Amino acid sequence: MFPTTLASVARMIVETLDQRGLDGRELMSAVGMNPELLCDPNARYPFSCMSRFWMRATEESGDDCLGLDVARMFHATALHGLGFAWLASDSLTDAMQRLARYYRVATTAAVARLDTEGDTYHLHIERAGSAPPAAPAAVDAAAAMLVGMCRKSAGPGFRPLHVALPRPQPTPACAERLIQLIRAPVAFDAPHIVFDVDAAVADRRLPTGNAELAHANEKVLIDYLAHLERNAVSARVKARLVDTLPSGDVNEAMMADSLNMSTRSLQRRLRDEDTSYKRLLDDTRRELALQYLGNSRLSVNEVTYLLGFSDPSNFSRAFRRWQGTSPSDYRARQQGQTPAA
């Protein structure tokens, strides 16, 4: 399937062009995009059209750093539920993990992952499959929006350790604007975006964290992806798991039946998507566990049953396998408390 991007990105480009006295909607039409979709929060444009729009917008504006001004138009709603899930995250680490899990909501032309190396987190954003490279202005906008989201959550003093961008060396004036905005060394002509953050800064608990709101918006994201990837069985399985786990009565055969297919067909379809029911169940439980434990009003016993475990000891063993610590100790650390001896 050809890659797509949320229409909200095009809306930010149009608003930027309009402010400069240029007709953004006319330019959209010239590259084969329907401007009427701009007000639909669920609409998407082909990535190839978006790339042409970025290139034409840069050309018409005569601004090599147009992406930085487009990023100033960013609002949390521009990323569907992902923007609000980010703002409700307990820490920047939590937020970047969500970004990596749901980056497909923003665009299916790229994938994101968060790696750890010593005291540094590396957020990688790279092309998905055979997707073409992003336009330079789109790369600049992505970097600027990412920095802005971090500052919205962690405060205006936030700065990454280092940023690498997959775009040619810009003009000296544009390079200076980028560096002043990011407030960190920036490398160009990189294979993909790399955003390095100090682990101590990223792990710091944020006063704006709200596990319930984060979970509610993740449910919106999961449902959106299930609709977007309706041919992807794994997305449909994950959406159903979120709904059915609290019942405690979830197994592969029942899941297959709810999707109107045989168990063998479910296994084959998931294998084709390089996953399995067991892996999806484990991943969904882990992600929900981290969210639920961030909600101090839920006891560990309540979290146990919300995740469909038969008793707390089973949940505790699974959580130690995921995080290397007990649920209670994890919660204490998240709340800045000393774990029980």
Summarize the SSE layout with pairings.
Elements: E1 4-6, H1 7-19, H2 24-30, E2 44-46, H3 47-61, H4 66-71, H5 81-87, H6 92-106, E3 110-117, E4 120-127, H7 136-154, E5 162-164, H8 172-182, E6 186-187, E7 193-198, H9 199-202, H10 211-228, H11 233-244, H12 252-258, H13 263-272, H14 277-293, H15 300-306, H16 312-323, H17 327-334
Parallel strand pairs: 5-6
Antiparallel strand pairs: 1-2, 3-4, 4-7, 5-7
Helix pairs in contact: 5-6, 5-10, 6-10, 10-11, 10-14, 11-14
Number of helices: 17
Q: What general outline do the C-alpha atoms trace? A: globular
**What percentage of amino acids are in beta strands?**
5-15%
Give the mean pLDDT. 90
Give the % helix: 55-70%
Q: How many structural domains can be distinguished in the coordinates?
A: 2
Low-confidence stretches: none
Computed over alpha carbons, the radius of gyration is: 21 Å
Largest sheet features: 5 strands, mixed
Number of strands: 7
Which structural class is indicated by helix and strand composition?
Answer: alpha+beta
Strand order of the largest sheet: 3-4-7-5-6
Q: Report, as a whole number of angstroms, the end-to-end distance.
A: 52 Å
Order of helices and strands: EHHEHHHHEEHEHEEHHHHHHHHH
